[in-house]
Amino acid sequence: MTRHVDLLVAGGGPAGLVTALHAARAGLDVEVWEPRPGAVDKACGEGLMPGALAALQELGVDPPGHAFHGIRYVGGDRSADAAFRDGAAGRGIRRTTLHGALSDAATAAGARIEQRAVGELRQDDDGVSVDDVRARHVVAADGLHSPLRRALGLDTAPARYRRYGLRRHFRTAPWSPFVEVHWAPEVEGYVTPVADDLVGVAVLATSKGSFDTRVRALPSLAALLTDAEPAGDVRGAGPLRQGARRRVAGRVLLVGDAAGYVDALTGEGLALAFAQAGAAVRAITDGAAPRYERDWVRLTRRYRWLTGALLLGTRPRPARRALVPLARLLPPLFDGAVNGLARPVDAA
After folding, report:
1. Is 112 within 8 Å of 32 (Cβ atoms)?
2. Which of 35, 60, 227, 323 is in the most buried spot, having the most CB atoms within 10 Å?
3. Considering the domain boundaries, does residue 40 fall inside one?
């Protein structure tokens, strides 16, 4: 017997759960299918910039974490700080904590969450059939290496310049009121306070070296972690850059990392996922699903341009070595870039 729903969401990470939350509150009958049990964790920086945090709070979701008040670039013994304006703050939130809060909000709104994977997908002009379910629309929010994106033939060619990320938590009190970015010729490390006694350390590089090897390439960061006890296993992700030929395929819409991803360099992943989720549901409820493609382009324009430019500009070793001195030399430029990223995505 076939069950009928308005919306089937493939993927129970933040992008999928926020999509389900918007949909349920809009009166849609929505199910989320996520094959992984429990709270879904992944390798990420775990920092929500002020705009992303505001978007989350507007949904009535306010998970605990640790506040941060700007971004600090560190290169050797030099550093440059950019504080958020007007007393704004971001928040470091464990991914598992965020998942729990979003899952609770989505189910409270009426969404159903099932532990199962999306199988073969067949669609026509009236809907989409997946296993024993018939949905009016499907949202693919199944991550960086989206199986649905691949099944729909929407993958683009692999990027020539590949980057990989690793993350681990350390049991230590945060030593800075900022998210710190430590720069070296081949790697950068991001330190995000996520609790009063815990920091998350994410390292990004073009190679697949071990977490410890990458940290050792950042002496300033390695020194700060000397006496810190690792808390949990190392998690990895990559290659980070993933493309999609388009974000709408009939009655299937791609949201979050599944819709295309450039890099974690600017820390906008969650903010973009939240904004895309809202835009996708509005397009569906308006009976204008194809409009989401245009909305996605608008919402992600700043991220794609700025992140692409930073990646290109910091690829040569001399440019990476000059980045922190340049930020110190031109503080208005650094401050403007950081506070531009701190704005809500819709303000792009």
Report:
1. yes
2. 323
3. yes
How many CB atoms are closer than 10 A to CB 26? 16
Residue pair 214/187 in contact (Cβ under 8 Å)? The answer is yes
Backbone phi, psi, residue 244, to 5°: -130, 135
Counted domains in the chain? 1
Query: Residue 256: which domain range?
Result: 3-52+60-65+91-159+241-314
> With contact defined as beta carbons under 8 Å apart, do 154 and 249 qualify?
yes
Check: CB of residue 66 under 8 Å from CB of residue 178.
no
Closest CA to 4 of 110, 128, 99: 128
Question: What CATH number has the domain bearing residue 274?
Answer: 3.50.50.60
Q: How far is CA 241 from CA 44, 159, 232, 311, in A?
A: 14, 6, 26, 11
Does 132 map to a domain?
yes
Q: What is the β-pairing status of strands 164-171 and 133-140? A: unpaired
CA distance 180 to 69: 11
| Residue 189 vs residues 165, 220, 275, 306: alpha-carbon distances, Å | 10, 10, 26, 19
Please give the helix or strand (H or E) that residue 189 lies within, else none. Answer: strand 187-195
Helices (H), 81-124: 95-109
Between helices 317-329 and 331-342, what is the axis angle to 10°?
100
Dihedral angle, C-alpha 37, 111, 97, 255, nearest 10 °: 90
Report the run of H or E that residue 319 belongs to, with start and end: helix 317-329
**Of the candidates 261, 278, 42, 300, the residue with the CA atom closest to the CA atom of residue 139:** 278
- pTM of structure: 0.95
